[in-house]
């Protein structure tokens, strides 16, 4: 309870600070005191409250909050990034304006030489002080408004582009991966791999139907669904997941849990996915006999299962230990970081998701701090790791720099 309250407190603090900064740059710096500035302050407060309201409300089935809340979250992110990037050139411009203003004041204050006549120095003519317009302030206002307009239009454009990508059909990535122990007879074995479908407030049955249709069109030998299928309970999303029963492959369809299954009732979803005809590999290994050869296919639970106190985390020894070392082994694991442990068991290839490829650039740079591979093919301690971008999205319906993806992995013999 205390940890949850602390988490909510941190989210509220960070959200408040971000919106205060946005208000300062987009409202206070661009308007004079008065009605428009007050309206901007109210808007900033409402939008700041919208973020936690969306995160909490969607879990309470207030799904009407999802579209405005998550779209603002994406737009807020890009406004923040762009304005932070503009801070340096804005600072330089302000310093230049200030230096020019100081130079102008020094020139205006310089005394003129006195005219000396026969009767002595002439008295200066009597003049009235004339107020000079504050050109420096007007230039600063123009600069602030220009930066706000540029950031606003760019953020809106990038967000709109990201929405189109996120809601469009997944791209097909075909990748060939050689495995040293793969028998020649199994050369060309194909595994259709998909992750992070994320059925929930914004993605439903039509999303699942499109993915199933694409996978069935690949005529794959195996289908691997590597976690984060849902963001909700079976009661809420069972009908949306139902088209999975139509998946077709020669040697079976398989599933492993992702972290979001553990937020959504993992035990119920394991039973439901099994009922739909996918075999759930919970720290298990199966033999795939195909084309006269044998390959071990293993799956481990997501680490979140253990972290959430259910003692349902990955058991590498159960899934990977005590096996024929001459056979190649492919591991299904939701998070790429699992490869750090899996490599100790001589895993040839790990298929993962979880990262969404970063989903919203430049957020992919932060994902690199947690996961050894963010997108595509990499290697961890001798184990090859392929990470698919995922076919859905989480949170904002936005993808920038990492389009939704379904992958056809073709295994090649040496």
UniProtKB/TrEMBL annotation:
Pfam assignment, any one? Metallophos
Q: Name one GO cellular component term.
A: membrane
In which organism is this protein found?
A: Micromonospora krabiensis
Molecular function GO labels: metal ion binding; UDP-2,3-diacylglucosamine hydrolase activity
Q: What is this protein called?
A: Calcineurin-like phosphoesterase domain-containing protein
Domain of life according to the entry? Bacteria
Cofactor(s) needed by this chain: a divalent metal cation
Q: What are the alphabetically sorted keywords of the record? A: Hydrolase, Membrane, Metal-binding, Transmembrane, Transmembrane helix
Q: Where are the transmembrane segments?
A: 6-27, 39-58, 70-92, 142-163
Q: State if Membrane is listed as a keyword.
A: yes
The record's annotation in InterPro entries points to:
Calcineurin-like_PHP (IPR004843), Metallo-depent_PP-like (IPR029052), Metallophosphoesterase_sf (IPR051158)
Per the record, the similarity remark reads:
Belongs to the metallophosphoesterase superfamily.
Calcineurin-like phosphoesterase domain location, by residue?
A: 189-357
**Any one of the GO BP annotations:** lipid A biosynthetic process
């Amino acid at each position: 309870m205390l940890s949850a309250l602390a988490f909510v407190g941190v989210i509220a603090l960070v959200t408040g600070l971000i919106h205060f900064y946005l208000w300062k740059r987009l409202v206070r710096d661009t308007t004079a005191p008065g009605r428009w500035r007050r309206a901007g302050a109210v808007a900033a407060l409402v939008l700041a409250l919208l973020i936690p309201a969306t995160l909490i409300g969607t879990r309470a089935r207030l799904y009407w909050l999802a579209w405005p809340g998550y779209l603002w979250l994406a737009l807020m992110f890009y406004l923040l990034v762009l304005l932070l990037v503009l801070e340096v050139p804005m600072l330089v411009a302000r310093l230049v304006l200030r230096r020019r203003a100081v130079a102008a004041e020094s020139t205006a204050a310089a005394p003129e030489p006195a005219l000396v006549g026969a009767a002595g120095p002439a008295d200066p003519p009597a003049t009235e002080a004339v107020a000079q317009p504050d050109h420096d302030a007007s230039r600063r206002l123009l600069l602030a408004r220009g930066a706000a307009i540029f950031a606003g239009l760019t953020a809106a454009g990038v967000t709109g582009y990201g929405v189109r990508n996120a809601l469009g059909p997944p791209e097909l990535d075909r990748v060939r991966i050689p495995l040293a122990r793969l028998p020649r007879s199994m050369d060309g074995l194909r595994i259709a791999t998909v992750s992070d479908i994320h059925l929930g407030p914004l993605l439903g049955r039509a999303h699942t139907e499109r993915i199933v249709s694409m996978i069935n069109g690949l005529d794959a030998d195996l289908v691997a669904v590597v976690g984060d299928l849902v963001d909700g309970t079976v009661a809420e999303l069972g009908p949306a997941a139902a088209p999975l029963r139509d998946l077709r492959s020669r040697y079976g369809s398989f599933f492993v849990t992702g972290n979001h299954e553990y937020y959504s009732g993992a035990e119920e979803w394991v039973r439901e996915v099994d009922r739909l005809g996918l075999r759930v590999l919970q720290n298990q290994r199966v033999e795939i006999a195909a084309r006269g050869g044998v390959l071990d296919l293993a799956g481990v639970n997501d680490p979140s299962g253990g972290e959430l106190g259910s003692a349902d985390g990955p058991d590498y020894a159960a899934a990977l230990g005590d096996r024929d070392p001459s056979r190649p082994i492919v591991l299904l694991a939701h998070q790429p970081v699992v490869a750090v442990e899996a490599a100790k068991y001589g895993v040839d290839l790990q298929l993962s998701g979880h990262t969404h490829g970063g989903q919203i650039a430049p957020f992919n740079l932060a994902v690199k701090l947690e996961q050894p591979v963010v997108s595509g093919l990499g290697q961890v301690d001798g184990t090859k790791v392929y990470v698919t971008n995922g076919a859905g999205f989480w949170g904002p319906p936005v993808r920038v720099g990492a389009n939704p993806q379904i992958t056809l992995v073709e295994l090649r013999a040496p």
